[in-house]
Structures are given as C-alpha cells and as structure tokens.
Amino acid sequence: MKMLLTKYLVYGLLAIAVAMTTACGTVVSKREVGETVATVSKTSFEGIWRVDFASRDYDGDTSRPKSGVFGKMAVVASRVKNTERGVVELLSVEVKDDKFDVQPTWDVIFRMTSAGMIGSVKNLDKKGVAGYEFFRTIFSSNGEYLLVYAPDTDLFKRLIEQGDIKGVVDNGSVVIDGLTETDFDRLLEKGIRPNQLFRSEPLILHRIVSR
C-alpha cells in the first residue's frame, strides 16, 4: 500500500509519508521497525491511490476521513512484492509545474507492532546516514482509505535526550538505533503509549482503483 509517496511519506516517510515533513525534521531508524512480519494481502494492499497532502480537517472517523485541500495532485500505485517478508512496492506520479513527475519505485517493509502496522522504507538522508524512514498505517474499516502517520520528531528528540531511546539528534534530524517491542514496553511503563510516537494528523490515501 504504499503511502508516503513523495517525500512526505518516506521522509519520514511516512513520511510518507511520508515524504514526510520538512519543517519538523526527520526520524530515521538504523533498522527496520518491528519484528513480526505483517500480512500484506493483494486485496488490501494493491491498487491505485489518490494522495491528500492536506488532511488537517481529518476528524478521527476511520470509516470515511474528510478530504482536505490538495496542495499537489499525486497518485500512488502499489503491488505486493513479497508476502513472506511483508514487502509492498510503490510507484508515485505527481504533477509539478504542469508536468508529470514519476518517482523511482521503492519497497515498503511492513511489520506488526504494539503501535499497529509500521512501514519502513530504506533511505539515505542528505548527510549520508543509511537507515529506514518509517510510518504508522491504518486502513479504514471499508478499505477505501489508508491513513499514514509520520513519527513525532519533537517527541523522539526528547526521548533521546532523556535516555529513553538510543539515538542521536543532528541538525533537526533524528537517527534512532531501532524500535522493538522491548522499547515499546519500556516507554509504556513511562506512560507513553506506542501510538503517541506518531503525529495525530495523517496523510490520507484514497483508493480509486482496486485490484
């Protein structure tokens, strides 16, 4: 299902979300996030998705999220590449300056965690730190929408500074060693729920063509 389509999803990533959000910095994990391979069925993950980059009016209803004002026009095509590893391949097409901009394909690795389904995208940031940008994903109850949540960069920075998560902060970007169930459990003991590690405002993908 690929989400994140441009640097929002991936950036993160997300963001996508991916792509994920330039003003707030990025969060990169040295390893894929999660340990249990997620089920990536063709029925759920394959299709063509319209991207809503402006979802600030999302009201929390996962059956039919509201659509915001499009800042860009973009679509994402997805196909299941490897069910045993939970890999989905994405291809995004965006309109820039009245021209089509086709992005290279990328693989998203899905894992089930205490925070739900997490997608990780292998990336190389501008400073040459190899790692994975990651994002939390939720399907709407009718399967028509995919909600993509980027990591909360400011929260990750605080957790690193407090020694709750292993990682470094460099010029606004955050690089963590990884996120395991042990990490989620430890943070929960400190009152931080797994979903709190991600922003509350999602990038919304609306399925316009099913497999």
Can I get a quick summary?
The termini are close together.
Structure description:
It is a single chain. This protein has helices at residues 42-45, 153-161, 181-189; strands at residues 8-9, 18-19, 27-29, 36-37, 47-52, 74-82, 87-96, 99-102, 106-113, 116-124, 130-139, 145-149, 167-170, 173-176, 203-210. The chain is mainly beta and 211 residues long. Strand 6 and strand 7 (87-96) form a beta hairpin. It is globular. Mean pLDDT is 79; it is low at 1-24, 54-58 and 67-71.
Please render the helix and strand layout as text:
Blueprint: E1 8-9, E2 18-19, E3 27-29, E4 36-37, H1 42-45, E5 47-52, E6 74-82, E7 87-96, E8 99-102, E9 106-113, E10 116-124, E11 130-139, E12 145-149, H2 153-161, E13 167-170, E14 173-176, H3 181-189, E15 203-210
Question: Main attributes?
Answer:
10% helix; two-stranded antiparallel ribbon; 211 residues; globular; 15 strands; mainly beta
State the end-to-end CA separation: 12 Å
**Unreliable segments of 5+ consecutive residues:** 1-24, 54-58, 67-71
- How many beta strands in the DSSP annotation? 15
The quaternary structure here is: single chain
Element-by-element helix/strand order: EEEEHEEEEEEEEHEEHE
> What is the overall number of helices?
3
The shape, in one word, is globular
The portion of residues forming beta strands comes to: 35-45%
CA-atom Rg in angstroms: 16 Å
Q: Tell me roughly what share of residues is in helical segments.
A: 10-25%
Mean pLDDT reading: 79
Structural class: mainly beta
Q: Major sheet: order of its strands? A: 5-6-7-9-10-11-12-15
Major sheet details: 8 strands, antiparallel, barrel
